[in-house]
Amino acid sequence: MLPDGGIAQELVTVPISPSDAEAVMSTCDVCGNSTFHEERVEEIFLIEGQLVMVEHIPARVYDRCQDATFDRETVEQVRRMVHGSNRPTRHVSVDVFTFA
Ligand SMILES: [Zn+2]
Question: In this structure, what DSSP letter does residue 77 have?
Fold first, then answer.
């Protein structure tokens, strides 16, 4: 998915404001490109202090930089899933490094 072989994607903080969600739909925040394809991705969200990884999320992936964006309904669905009665599929632990 990523050119360097799968380093975790940048953290996406939920919630994002509706205006932000509208803005990312047209051009990429990272490279300004506007050509993308649909792809299922995995992403790590920070929801009220809790880190969760969600797999198989439908996303727009920009062709140039491979940055993935989600529409507002998808983000809402992720939030409902995490807050709802759904049980996690599996658990992973994460090593944390401080850049120095
Ligand atoms: Zn881009």
Answer: H
Check if CATH label 1.20.272.10 holds for domain 13-83: no
Gap from CA of 13 to ligand 1 centroid (Å): 18
Give the chain's radius of gyration (CA, Å): 14
Q: How far is the CA of 1 from the centre of ligand 1 (A)?
A: 14
Token readout for 95 is 């090593």
Would you state the pLDDT for residue 54? 92
Domain ranges of the chain: 13-83
* Rounded Cα–Cα distance for residues 85 and 81 (Å): 7
Q: How many helices (H) and strands (E) does the chain have?
A: 2, 4
Could you read off the pLDDT of 8-51 as tens digits, one per residue? Answer: 455 555 544 444 444 445 688 889 888 999 999 998 888 778 88
